[in-house]
Amino acid sequence: SAYSSTSPTSLVDLSYAPPIPLEIMAMRGLPDSAKLVWAIIEYHMRLNKWAFPSVATIARMIGHDEDTARRGLRKLEDAGLLLTQYRNRQASLYITLLPPRSESTQ
């Protein structure tokens, strides 16, 4: 196998993983870990049309701890890049968004 058993991606086929859009990569105030969280949510959306990975799954897939994954989710929400529907006793539903296009990029 290309991945060791301890690899965060060892059980995940990332061939469906989307590239992180340049508009998001260029956002200086957004930590790199939050950008990875965005990509993981988008990955799940492409597979299932809905994204509802647990925080533990997100953390495993980005190679960070759960606190970092939670901070990434909050940063994405604050930046307007993620809509979250909180559900009782179930994983939250997520929808990724792109940043609004600036007038210089339209």
Descriptive account of the structure:
The protein has 106 residues and is mainly alpha-helical. The protein has four helices and two strands; from the N terminus they run ααααββ. It has helices at residues 22-25, 32-48, 55-62, 66-78; strands spanning 82-85, 93-96. Strands 1-2 form a two-stranded antiparallel sheet. The model is unreliable at 1-10 (pLDDT under 50).
In whole angstroms, the N-to-C terminal distance is: 44 Å
Which structural class is indicated by helix and strand composition? mainly alpha
Largest sheet: 2 strands, antiparallel
Q: How much helix, percentage-wise, in residues?
A: 25-40%
Q: What does the average pLDDT come to?
A: 83
Shape: globular
Number of helices: 4
Strand content: 5-15%
Structural key phrases:
disordered N terminus, 4 helices, mainly alpha, two-stranded antiparallel ribbon, 106 residues, 8% strand
Brief rundown of the structure:
This protein has 106 residues and is mostly helical. The chain has helices at residues 22-25, 32-48, 55-62, 66-78; strands spanning 82-85, 93-96.
List the helices and strands and how they pair.
Layout: H1 22-25, H2 32-48, H3 55-62, H4 66-78, E1 82-85, E2 93-96
Antiparallel strand pairs: 1-2
